[in-house]
Amino acid sequence: MSTLDGFQAQLRALPKVSLHDHLDGSLRPQTLIDLAAEVGHELPTADPEALQEIFRTNANSGDLVKYLEAFAHTTAVMQSAENLRRVAREYVEDLAADGVVYSEVRWAPEQHLAGGLTLDETVEAVQAGLNDGVEAVEANDGVIAVGQLISAMRQADHAEEIVELALRHRDAGVVGFDIAGPEAGFPPSRFAASFTRLAEQMLPATVHAGEADGLESVRGALVDGRAQRLGHGIRVAEDITLTSGPESRSKIGDGGEDLIEVELGPVATWVRDRQIHLETSPTSNLQTGAVSALTGKTEAELAHHPFDMLYQLGFNVGVNTDNRLVSGVTLTGELAALAEAFDYGLAELADFQINAIEASFLGYEEREVLAAHILEAWQ
């Protein structure tokens, strides 16, 4: 076993937290093949390893259209209660196998109605699968808890209906609300009334922002979306000005120069000072072009990701996978990649777990119990 493999094995055994993981982007390749055969949906291949490689290659192509091709396949097979339940159960089992002890799974029920299900029936089917998965993990002496984040698709304009759906199921597995889909042209201000309704009913929200669009998207998520967390959020770095040179000892940024002075604009200041959690997904942020949009580097690498800069400046950052099938990643692998890119040890990687659990939509007592469990294990 190589040193890297040994480090990943160590990380896999440690308790971790996942706050940004899409259900329809995280199917097992074999499950996708099985379900596609059942419903008569054509896939590029019926070989699970080859299918995974096609998705990974498309994700790494730099072409967002190719990246998104996978979702046409996954949602096509997730149109029945039985299939939703299976996908949700396996989702939990796969996370537990990777050492995740708490997850908030996001998905958009409005994308799963083609088979005749109602919105409520889709949520109930996913919750049944999540419950099945938790029971299976516990039967093997494991520990995991999972909450649903109900997403509304920005381009569909069904936010008011989806908010009411989330509220109806808040005591039956739903822990929060999200908006997903294209950022540009679909700002949170379009759904201001829906976010007000959530605030009135005190159901928390996270908002996809600062991934496919820039700083104004982040501002809109905070102001109009009343976001407690930012989905990705890395383009808040557009509001940070660095002056660098050889004089200082502190290294920060994309490979290189020593920091002399940092100036935070009003949005970045608000995000840092209020400790608004950033749900970063390092590999996905590279694949979707979010890092290139920040750096201007067409061939962006993980070392160009603003993650380390944000962490060193005191931003509240977490680590996520976004879409495990599509990107071909695990949470363990993402942590190991960050450790290699930025020379992190276990102490830093533990910080990201505590950041995430404290920013989760669990209740205070539950967060405290899980945080203590995580700290004890990582120390």
UniProtKB/TrEMBL annotation:
<dbReference type="GO" id="GO:0043103">
    <property type="term" value="P:hypoxanthine salvage"/>
</dbReference>
<dbReference type="InterPro" id="IPR032466">
    <property type="entry name" value="Metal_Hydrolase"/>
</dbReference>
<dbReference type="GO" id="GO:0046872">
    <property type="term" value="F:metal ion binding"/>
</dbReference>
<dbReference type="GO" id="GO:0006154">
    <property type="term" value="P:adenosine catabolic process"/>
</dbReference>
<feature type="domain" description="Adenosine deaminase">
    <location>
        <begin position="15"/>
        <end position="375"/>
    </location>
</feature>
<dbReference type="InterPro" id="IPR001365">
    <property type="entry name" value="A_deaminase_dom"/>
</dbReference>
<comment type="similarity">
    <text>Belongs to the metallo-dependent hydrolases superfamily. Adenosine and AMP deaminases family.</text>
</comment>
<keyword id="KW-0378">Hydrolase</keyword>
<keyword id="KW-0479">Metal-binding</keyword>
<keyword id="KW-0862">Zinc</keyword>
<protein>
    <recommendedName>
        <fullName>adenosine deaminase</fullName>
        <ecNumber>3.5.4.4</ecNumber>
    </recommendedName>
</protein>
<dbReference type="GO" id="GO:0005829">
    <property type="term" value="C:cytosol"/>
</dbReference>
<dbReference type="GO" id="GO:0004000">
    <property type="term" value="F:adenosine deaminase activity"/>
</dbReference>
<dbReference type="Pfam" id="PF00962">
    <property type="entry name" value="A_deaminase"/>
</dbReference>
<dbReference type="InterPro" id="IPR006330">
    <property type="entry name" value="Ado/ade_deaminase"/>
</dbReference>
<dbReference type="GO" id="GO:0046103">
    <property type="term" value="P:inosine biosynthetic process"/>
</dbReference>
